[in-house]
Amino acid sequence: MDDGGHAYAIREGFRINWMNMRDAATGQVMWESGEWDCGQDEMEAQIPCEILRCKQISRELNFSSLEVLTSLRLVQSVIFKGEPLEEWNFHFGFVIPNSTNTWQQTIEAAEEEEMLPAELLSGNVVIETTFFDGDYPIMTQRVRIWYV
Amino acid sequence: MGLLGLLKKMKKDDMEARILILGLDNAGKTTILKTMTSEDISHTMPTQGFNIKSIMQDGFKLNVWDIGGQEAIRPYWSNYFENTDGLVYVVDSSDTRRLEESSRELKQLLAEEKLAGIPTLVFANKQDLMSAAGAEDVSAALELDFIGDRVWQIQACSAKTGEGLQEGMEWLVGNCRKG
Ligand SMILES: Nc1nc2c(ncn2[C@@H]2O[C@H](COP(=O)(O)OP(=O)(O)OP(=O)(O)O)[C@@H](O)[C@H]2O)c(=O)[nH]1
Ligand SMILES: [Mg+2]
């Protein structure tokens, strides 16, 4: 198989199954995506605005790969009105063929006084996650956040 | 920054530690992690790959890697050895028939060059079960007293009740080589 064929197979065999967000202090799920529709370019999440009062939140992502990957990494950015504000990189490295994997990231929330009100954030925040194998992009998913 | 307000900006030069959790299938690795993050443990499925928990606090970053323990997955364990700062080996203390198999896998890990000298914590898990062997019996079955090339510790625990988990992990993180 040539490189292009292999890259195609990786993409075809890769999927994000679900995502969720929790109050990290209690482990309580604040939002979960359910089965992910991979065909959708942007997905919407209705998140209870209480999450803005959580001291720590965790975001979890579950994905599968049919193919073996040697150098999986992810870039996740939080975008507010089109401006990237925060960015995380995570290097997974090796991915077992035919595997299902999860990555959960727990982060501290900002101090309450630094926080924008929910009305201002709602609908203007997008969490964008891109997976790469080495330098090669596999897929990008966007979740637009609505605080309800 | 901080304007988005959802998350604090990550500091530069943070300390980072990588913990690897291994052990036979059904030992309780994933349940241990879930209990430590207060998650519901009633629907835990066998791990068909890895589960990673990245925890960031006060500029300190902890990445915990839990890899599936099924026999078919074990040949892939070695892909996750690199840069490990601490090893957790989980044993189902109630499954006395498999202590020998568990001992064999641990010895192979301890012989790995990439894990040489890495501080090692053995969790004698499932202590809430009547049938569980005590930490001393698990230690004897795994011949831990013969480990001479690293700091190690055995900790009785129950992923179900949470007993022993914090003590064990605090010992390990405290013994990790830093930075
Ligand atoms: N009674 C009791 N059951 C436990 C304990 N820890 C785990 N279990 C149960 O043991 C089973 C296996 O737990 P897992 O956490 O999935 O085991 P694992 O080591 O992650 O297994 P693999 O992912 O296949 O490697 C589950 O049914 C758990 O509920 C414990 O401390 N006490
Ligand atoms: Mg597991």
TrEMBL record, chain A:
GO terms for cellular component: cytoplasm. Residues 9-147 form the GMP phosphodiesterase delta subunit domain. InterPro entries: Ig_E-set, PDED_dom, PDED_dom_sf. Gene3D superfamilies: GMP phosphodiesterase, delta subunit (2.70.50.40). Pfam families: GMP_PDE_delta. PANTHER family: RETINAL ROD RHODOPSIN-SENSITIVE CGMP 3',5'-CYCLIC PHOSPHODIESTERASE DELTA-SUBUNIT (PTHR12976), RETINAL ROD RHODOPSIN-SENSITIVE CGMP 3',5'-CYCLIC PHOSPHODIESTERASE SUBUNIT DELTA (PTHR12976:SF0). Belongs to the PDE6D/unc-119 family. This is Retinal rod rhodopsin-sensitive cGMP 3',5'-cyclic phosphodiesterase subunit delta. The lineage of its organism: Eukaryota, Sar, Alveolata, Dinophyceae, Suessiales.
UniProtKB/TrEMBL annotation, chain B:
SUPFAM superfamilies: P-loop containing nucleoside triphosphate hydrolases (SSF52540). Mg(2+) binds at residues 30, 47. SMART domains: ARF, SAR. Transmembrane segments: none annotated. Gene3D superfamilies: P-loop containing nucleotide triphosphate hydrolases. CDD domains: Arl3. The keyword Ligase does not apply. It comes from the Eukaryota. GTP binds at residues 23-30, 69, 125-128. It is found in: Golgi apparatus. The keyword Glycoprotein does not apply. It holds the Pfam family Arf. Keywords: Golgi apparatus, GTP-binding, Lipoprotein, Magnesium, Metal-binding, Myristate, Nucleotide-binding, Protein transport, Transport. PANTHER family: ADP-RIBOSYLATION FACTOR-LIKE PROTEIN 2-RELATED (PTHR45697). This is ADP-ribosylation factor-like protein 3.
